[in-house]
């Protein structure tokens, strides 16, 4: 049975002396989150402990973003966690997490590119809550989806730089049948926007495919832009090709192609990894 911990004290009372994995979420859970929970169980085995956090973190939302309308589906989230064998759901209030003036984590240069450039302060909020949850859950493994690749990279950098005793595990993006990356924000899309959104994985796939033919970084980016441009409802914020640590794209070797695209008021992220001049 899944235990519900509404505050840090109850969480501490429910932590067992066994290997532990944590999956951090903002709720509105879907099959992508379910895959993270399954991977968490695989990390610690049947005798280990899986903790899921459900917390819509105000610190990572900027002015005018969707904090107030972000979907809250708490009862359905608890049911999914129960079905996936989660041992503890930690669902604290904002007051429990930010009771006083708080110290925050400075993400460094990664906070000023891609998502950070579009959403100033976002990664300060992300890393601050991740650090707090790592301390409170005392996890041995922390699992994050590769869909939010910049977030995953920033968390790995923080864990390495601040010597957190935890292994960060990236889990491949889970997709709908037509290729769209699963996201809690997909439910914002109108029918027309949902139909148009499939252009995002199609564009990334086209970029990855041309890379396998020996195309250089500029050619990969141009092909990706061209495919996105075919969809009038798609408005890209950025399309970027980087190395695995979000530095400049390599001449050859492992690379990551990332994009953020708006459909009306909804903003979707996606990315794909491949080897320039090699195989995906």
From TrEMBL:
SUPFAM superfamilies named in the record: Nucleotidylyl transferase
Record's GO cellular component terms: cytosol
InterPro entries named in the record: Pantoate_ligase (IPR003721), Pantoate_ligase_C (IPR042176), Rossmann-like_a/b/a_fold (IPR014729)
UniProt keyword terms in alphabetical order: ATP-binding, Ligase, Nucleotide-binding, Pantothenate biosynthesis
Pathway recorded for this protein: Cofactor biosynthesis; (R)-pantothenate biosynthesis; (R)-pantothenate from (R)-pantoate and beta-alanine: step 1/1
Its EC number(s): 6.3.2.1
Broad enzyme group: ligase
Gene Ontology terms: biological process: pantothenate biosynthetic process
Coiled coil start-end: none
One MF term in the entry's GO annotations: pantoate-beta-alanine ligase activity
The reaction(s) this protein catalyses: (R)-pantoate + beta-alanine + ATP = (R)-pantothenate + AMP + diphosphate + H(+)
PANTHER family: CYTIDYLATE KINASE/PANTOATE-BETA-ALANINE LIGASE, PANTOATE--BETA-ALANINE LIGASE
Similarity field: Belongs to the pantothenate synthetase family.
Protein name: pantoate--beta-alanine ligase (AMP-forming)
Lineage: unclassified sequences, metagenomes, ecological metagenomes
């Amino acid at each position: 049975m899944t235990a519900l911990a509404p505050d840090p004290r109850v969480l501490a009372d429910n932590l067992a002396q066994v290997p532990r994995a944590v999956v951090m979420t903002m709720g509105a859970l879907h099959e992508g989150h379910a895959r993270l929970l399954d991977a968490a169980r695989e990390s610690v085995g049947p005798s280990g402990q899986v903790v899921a956090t459900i917390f819509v973190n105000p610190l990572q939302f900027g002015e005018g973003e969707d904090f107030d309308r972000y979907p809250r589906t708490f009862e359905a989230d608890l049911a999914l966690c129960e079905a996936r064998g989660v041992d503890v759901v930690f669902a604290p209030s904002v007051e429990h997490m930010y009771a006083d003036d708080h110290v925050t984590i400075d993400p460094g240069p990664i906070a000023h590119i891609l998502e950070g450039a579009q959403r100033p302060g976002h990664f300060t909020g992300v890393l601050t809550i991740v650090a707090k949850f790592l301390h409170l859950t005392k996890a041995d493994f922390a699992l994050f989806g590769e869909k939010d690749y910049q977030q995953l990279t920033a968390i790995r950098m923080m864990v390495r730089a601040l010597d957190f005793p935890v292994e960060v595990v990236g889990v491949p993006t889970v997709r709908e049948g037509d290729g769209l990356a699963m996201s809690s924000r997909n439910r914002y899309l109108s029918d027309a926007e949902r139909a148009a959104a499939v252009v995002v994985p199609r564009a990334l796939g086209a970029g990855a495919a041309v890379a396998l033919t020996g195309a250089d970084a500029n050619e990969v980016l141009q092909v990706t832009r061209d495919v996105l441009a075919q969809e009038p409802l798609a408005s890209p914020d950025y399309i970027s090709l980087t190395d695995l640590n979000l530095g400049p794209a390599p001449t050859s070797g492992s690379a990551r192609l990332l994009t953020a695209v708006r459909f009306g008021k909804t903003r979707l992220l996606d990315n794909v990894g491949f080897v320039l001049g090699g195989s995906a």
